[in-house]
Amino acid sequence: MNQLTNAIGRNLPESIEGYGKVRPFTGAFATVPDMQRQAPKVKRILPNEQKLVEDIETVFKRIPVTDGMTLSFHHHLRNGDGVVNMVLAVAAKLGLKNLTVALSSVFPVHAPIVEHVKSGVVAGLDTNYMSGPVAQAVSHGVFPRPVVLRTHGGRARAIECGQLKIDVAFIAAPAADDYGNINGVEGPAACGSLGYAIPDAQYANHVVAITDHLMPYPLSPISIPQTRVDYVVKVDCIGDPKGIVSGTTKITRDPVGLKIAETTAKVIKAAGLIKDGFSFQTGAGGASLAAAYYVRQMMEESGVTGSFALGGITGYMVEMLESGLFRKLIDVQGFDLDAVRSLAANPNHLEVGADFYASPFNLGAAVNKLDAVVLGATEIDTGFNINVVTGSDGVVMGGSGGHSDAAAGAKVTIVVANLLRGRLPIIMDKVLTATTPGETVDVLVTERGVAVNPRRTDLYEKLKAAGLPLKTVEELKALAEKMAGVPENVITQDKVVAVVEYRDGTVIDVVRQVGK
Amino acid sequence: MNQLTNAIGRNLPESIEGYGKVRPFTGAFATVPDMQRQAPKVKRILPNEQKLVEDIETVFKRIPVTDGMTLSFHHHLRNGDGVVNMVLAVAAKLGLKNLTVALSSVFPVHAPIVEHVKSGVVAGLDTNYMSGPVAQAVSHGVFPRPVVLRTHGGRARAIECGQLKIDVAFIAAPAADDYGNINGVEGPAACGSLGYAIPDAQYANHVVAITDHLMPYPLSPISIPQTRVDYVVKVDCIGDPKGIVSGTTKITRDPVGLKIAETTAKVIKAAGLIKDGFSFQTGAGGASLAAAYYVRQMMEESGVTGSFALGGITGYMVEMLESGLFRKLIDVQGFDLDAVRSLAANPNHLEVGADFYASPFNLGAAVNKLDAVVLGATEIDTGFNINVVTGSDGVVMGGSGGHSDAAAGAKVTIVVANLLRGRLPIIMDKVLTATTPGETVDVLVTERGVAVNPRRTDLYEKLKAAGLPLKTVEELKALAEKMAGVPENVITQDKVVAVVEYRDGTVIDVVRQVGK
């Protein structure tokens, strides 16, 4: 097969069976869109028509769902989601084949997908993140077609630009009325923001709300409007609350994690960002939250009011909103009960779609307005390219999610990591799977020092002046290797099992089969 | 010229110069859409790009605005609007010609449009309602092309379906941030809902926010999002608050109006609609508000909680929301300060776009869920067709606005009118300009009796059982003629000065030139 090399030196096939022609990554901001937006069919409904349908099977027959269609789902119910399995069971029962599942993230609870692949019901998967049995199955070559791995913003872009065409969007609806208005803040499966479902509902050819909490018309707030929803199905239960939101997310107690977090906050301050209007994104992991903790101290000390915190929202961010440290929260996904409660009640807590959050191809996503973002990594290389897709064994265990999007948008992008991960150095010459390109990563913070991307001489000078423990990324790599040796290369097969699309739709890397 | 006759017997040219081929009205629900939605160009903006531009002239040059383009505007600033005149003055200064102005409603303040037409800057007008000098000029044949008169829902449909293509939407923004998020509830020109601007922003090729109240990023609530706004211009003043909202809207004190209103409420009750979940729309005029007053008494007496009130929202509806008589308000346009205040603060007061309010071609507008709507009329004929476009002299003095939309959607559509209007009978064999088709009008309430559309035998029986003073429309017509004689036919010229499109885009009637 003919090969090509993309802008970060990855060798890629020119074309991949089951995916098509590869458009190589050419730089984080190199692709200029040249198309019209996706235009779904115009429909109508007569004033007395009803949308409530007795069960999912009836919906399948009414649409009708046929072989080869793309069915989309959102992941806001996370590992408590009951809707994907429920819908695919109907597809299997009806004998459908060759479906593509476009599910914004895949969790262990979605294990039944593997059986649907084996039986031919499902042939394709399009997602931004996956963990658990499905991710394992992908890596072991169970899927007949390579999985498409996107970023959160890239998925919104692909939908808006007609590159991910959705035949039917099944929306797990924590609350809905009988005319299809939906929100995520009420009902037993309340999950908060429905941000990832918003582009699906906007552009799918058919939209089905699946709810266990039918409310009187008109439901409000309205996250997804009646004007785009064809059918409403009431089921007993759309998900298990225990898997949907955690009671509360907690800051790490690991001293190494705390040290990295404190250094991260110092980097942000040294970069001159702790001032009125500061905007910030961090993850929900314990170490990321710890960074928020130290940032908060600095904001309080300096009497600073931030403009907004962005991304997946936790109770810690809610507390910062309620304390007046941020004027607004921009929420594409909530992680805990406090985030759900706040979104329901606080007008300064804004729900936005994945397009508003992170799409590269509109007139400005929220990530573009970020001052600082703190992100994780499973591997980083000396070109500052990040891997958050595969683990040290080459098996898929994640995905970009909003990683590449926030990295591209923020003024200062900081990756935090322990030098070792599972006794293996995290820094290498070349990451196994490039997810986020080095040109969008500014600083690496580890427990043994801080490396600044050589592209950011401005930032280097500021951090140096602030007395931060600067090292080159090569020096940090050498330190790690001194502790743990040089890791062996992962041996993979030739078969491409996943295509990693950058947020603009170009291919930044591929994942190859492991084992056998 | 060849003629055709539409489903309500109107003779229309087959084709109209400057408008094109006429698709005749074939029935209120006869048109089934068969197209894809309009797909504007996909754009992008880099993370550090700015949208704030120094003045409107610079925006014209950047886009660039060229001869023949369609510029759209919303009418939420009503007779206080400063933006339309401001923008068209720039167009004139730059020597542009042959522009089409797509302004959702035209008020006396927009008189300068007439001069722009005479000088060739503006050639076309697309609107849902007009009064004042522009309406006079239209009727006297000043425009080189016939004006297109739409309904509020029809305008949203035409934009969504690509039949009204907007090159540049200029959004008068009572509040905006520098990245283009817009709302109508803050700032000196606060007008409440921006519902009519929402489809424009969604589908225009270029969107410009013009504001006199620049807020820190991110502004919220967000009525129009940053993702669709190309440029933001700060000006000194977008409008005169005195012309935008009234201090408070008042119920009529006219005893005839009160009698009609009371009868109207009795019709609604007799129709069996005063029960939990009741939904209602009425206008902001004194007589319409009086109907709300009597409906309210009945709701209170029966201990009924309504689901929602819809449409243009007044302080009276806000009071009913706050008293728990309606669970929600669905607001496409606010009429007074109370409506603005409530929309800003009350989560049960929902802002919606014109598409959600009234478009016939989506999966269900709010009008479809209406139990009862109370509407006015300048003329009504024995086929229950309504004219709200031209006055007794044949001159344009209004337009459908949401009239035809609500009439089509509601379970019971009631038209209220004094038998005489300016000493002339309001009922005739054939209205001068058909706006809303009789098949969507159920009841006519006058001070001398109530006429039920013969199509609604079910309703006739209920109103009869309730002892309402029923008459046929012919009997009411005879009564009026006995008082005031048979009105003379208005003499018009041949030239078509306006095309009245029904909400589905078919032509329900035309307006011909008056005078000379």
Automatic annotation (TrEMBL), chains A, B:
Print the organism lineage: Bacteria, Bacillati, Bacillota, Negativicutes, Selenomonadales
GO molecular function terms here? citrate (pro-3S)-lyase activity; citrate CoA-transferase activity
Give the catalysed reaction(s), semicolon-separated: citrate = oxaloacetate + acetate; citrate + acetyl-CoA = (3S)-citryl-CoA + acetate
Query: GO cellular component terms?
Result: ATP-independent citrate lyase complex; cytoplasm
Q: What Gene3D superfamilies does the annotation carry?
A: Glutaconate Coenzyme A-transferase
Q: Which InterPro entries match?
A: Citrate_lyase_asu, NagB/RpiA_transferase-like
Organism field: Sporomusa malonica
Give the matching NCBIfam families. Answer: citF
This entry's Enzyme Commission designation comes to 2.8.3.10, 4.1.3.6
Cellular localization per UniProt: Cytoplasm
Query: What keyword terms does UniProt attach to this protein?
Result: Cytoplasm, Lyase, Transferase
What coarse category fits the chief subcellular location reported for this protein? Answer: cytoplasm
Q: Which Pfam family, an example, fits this chain? A: CitF
Which biological process terms from the Gene Ontology are attached to this UniProt entry?
acetyl-CoA metabolic process
Name of the molecule in the record: Citrate lyase alpha chain
